[in-house]
Amino acid sequence: xxxxxxxxxxxxxxxxxxxxxxxxxxxxxxxxxxxxxxxxxxxxxxxxxxxxxxxxxxxxxxxxxxxxxxxxxxxxxxxxxxxxxxxxxxxxxxxxxxxxxxxxxxxxxxxxxxxxxxxxxxxxxxxxxxxxxxxxxxxxxxxxxxxxxxxxxxxxxx
Length: 158
Hints:
Elements: H1 16-30, H2 39-46, H3 50-62, E1 66-69, E2 75-78, H4 87-95, H5 102-105, H6 115-135, H7 138-151
Antiparallel strand pairs: 1-2
Helix pairs in contact: 1-2, 1-3, 1-4, 1-7, 4-6
């Protein structure tokens, strides 16, 4: 059974803007349609400010993750199938691929015992997290969500 208390916990290394970008793409992927979805609908479904979401979607469009259609039936849709789009690609675009390197940010005169060891540990941790992000597609996430929703049984006992 899914632990509903921890459902919205995300790593602190992911910015709010990146979380919103991921959720917007997830929303488009979960709709299983190539038809355009209005910003207001995405924003309402994912509890994102429409104004902030609009800026994010413009950037995602420039990167080729989403496409748009103008007019009354306009909105945004995925520019490629969700099977071809990984979480890692979106994170790398929104946040960049900068790796944390303690040695680059610490001056040689201020090194402390353990800095090299911890730097290596943090790099291995970052590489492990990136491996997961880079393997996880939005189609995988949609499937995982559908499975979790089907298996979740609310408990109304007082």
